[in-house]
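Incident log, structure service

09:12 report received: a user says their structure output differs between two submissions of the same chain.
09:20 pulled the input from the user's history:
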Amino acid sequence: MRKTEIAKRIHQQVGISQEEAAKLLDGTLELFKTTLRKGDPIIIHGFGKFTVRSKLPRRGRNPSTGEAIMISARRVVTFRASSLSQN
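09:34 re-ran on a clean worker, output below:
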């Protein structure tokens, strides 16, 4: 699902204009990005948890040439889904 499709669903379900839905979605995603950049987790009850994890440098291979390369240290976002209880 693309961002425009999500904004369209917000428009349909909430009853706000498509422009307002797009602004709302953009603001929410920006909030997520700034929170994760700071290293803080985002926990959405009943959905899941977004966290930032640091990865150490490691050796890897270029898949097209097979050449050994060093993959630099970096921070990655991980997501763990909540367990969904069925009623």
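09:41 both user submissions now match this output. Likely a transient worker issue. Closing.
09:42 reviewer note: DSSP finds two helices and five strands in the chain. Helices lie at 3-14, 18-37.
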